[in-house]
Design brief:
Blueprint: E1 2-9, H1 19-23, E2 28-32, E3 38-40, E4 47-51, E5 60-64, E6 68-74, H2 79-95, E7 98-102, E8 105-107, H3 109-113, H4 116-135, E9 142-145, E10 150-153, H5 155-163, H6 166-176, E11 181-182, E12 186-190, E13 193-201, E14 206-209, H7 214-217, E15 221-230, E16 232-239, H8 240-246, E17 252-256, E18 259-262, H9 267-274
Helix pairs in contact: 2-4, 4-5
C-alpha cells in the first residue's frame, strides 16, 4: 500500500520544475542502488527519493518530467513524513499551473489538503494491520523498505508499535540515522558457480546479515573479503560464516532480527581473525 499523488502540469508552455522547489528547505534526496540502499545526495535521471534528515522514514519516491511529477510514499509512514509529502505538493502546485490526481480523482490543492486527517487515520490503520499480521503469525517477519535501506519488523517491534504507534516514527529514524556502512552482497559468476561476496573494511562500523541465505541470494557460496588499509588496500578472502564466528562478541550488537552491527575492527583484531 502507498500514498500516491500525481501532479500534471497544464498549458501548452511547460515550465521545468527546479529541484529546489521539490526539496524546499528541509528535504534531501538520493537514489537506490540495485540492493535498495540509498546513495545519498545524488540523483539518477528523473527518478529519486526524498527524505527528511530530521525524521528519516520510508522515503518519498519521485518520478518526474516537464509534464508531470509522481510522488509515492509507502504505508505505513511516519506522521511527519506524510506532512512532508503534503508540503511538497503545496510547493509544486504553487509553482506550476497544474492539477492534482489523488486516489484516482482530479482535484484542486484545497481539496487535496482536506484529505490530510483521513490520510493520517488510514496510515494508523495500516500500521495496526501490519502489526497484527506479524503478531498472529500470518507474517512471522516483514521487510519494510525504508528511506535508507530495508528494515525488518519482528514480533518485538510489532508488539511495541501496536501498543505505542508513535514509537514507529522514532524507531524508523533511529534505525537509519547512524553513521554506518550497510554491507551488501556482490554476486560474481565463475563458470556455472555463483559466489556472493561481502566486504569488511578495517575500522569501518558496518551492518551485516546474521545468516545470509544461499537460496535467497541465488548463489553457491558466500565469502567475506577483509580489506586492510595499509597504503594500498590488502585483501583477505575467507568463508563468511567461519570468519564471522571468530569475531569477538564484544564487537557485535543486534541491529534487527536478521542483521548485526560489527564495530570497526582495528588491525590487531583483524590479524587475530586471520590467524
Amino acid at each position: 500500500m502507498a500514498l500516491n499523488v500525481q501532479i500534471n502540469q497544464k498549458g501548452l508552455l511547460k515550465k521545468k520544475l527546479p529541484i529546489e522547489i521539490i526539496l524546499g528547505d528541509d528535504l534531501a534526496c538520493g537514489y537506490y542502488d540495485e540492493a535498495m540502499i540509498l546513495v545519498l545526495d545524488e540523483i539518477e535521471d528523473e527518478n529519486f527519493v526524498l527524505y527528511n534528515p530530521n525524521h528519516i522514514g520510508r522515503g518519498i519516491s519521485v518520478d518526474y518530467n516537464k509534464n508531470y511529477i509522481n510522488l509515492n510514499l509507502p504505508s505505513p509512514a511516519p506522521v511527519n513524513e506524510i506532512k512532508d509529502l503534503f508540503d511538497v505538493v503545496k510547493r509544486i502546485v504553487n509553482y506550476w499551473n497544474s492539477e492534482i490526481v489523488f486516489d484516482d480523482k482530479a482535484m484542486s490543492l484545497e481539496e487535496f489538503l482536506n484529505n490530510y486527517d483521513e490520510v493520517i487515520s488510514f496510515n494508523k490503520d495500516v500500521l495496526k494491520e501490519m502489526c497484527e499480521k506479524v503478531l498472529s503469525n500470518e507474517d512471522e517477519e516483514l521487510t519494510l523498505y525504508s528511506a535508507f535501506w530495508p528494515l525488518i519488523i519482528s514480533k518485538k517491534e510489532a508488539l511495541l508499535f501496536n501498543k505505542k504507534p508513535l514509537e514507529f516514527d522514532s524507531w524508523l529514524h533511529n534505525k537509519q540515522n547512524i553513521d554506518i556502512y550497510y554491507a551488501k552482497a556482490i554476486l560474481n559468476k565463475t563458470g556455472k558457480k555463483v559466489t556472493a561476496t561481502y566486504v569488511l573494511t578495517e575500522s569501518v562500523r558496518s551492518i551485516f546479515p546474521k545468516n545470509p541465505d544461499k537460496k535467497e541470494l541465488k548463489c553457491d557460496r558466500i565469502q567475506l573479503v577483509i580489506c586492510i588499509n595499509e597504503g594500498e588496500n590488502i585483501y583477505h578472502v575467507g568463508d563468511y560464516n567461519q570468519i564471522m564466528s571468530k569475531i569477538d562478541k564484544s564487537k557485535i550488537t543486534e541491529y534487527d532480527s536478521k542483521h548485526i552491527i560489527i564495530e570497526g575492527l582495528n588491525r590487531k583484531e583483524i590479524d587475530k581473525l586471520l590467524s
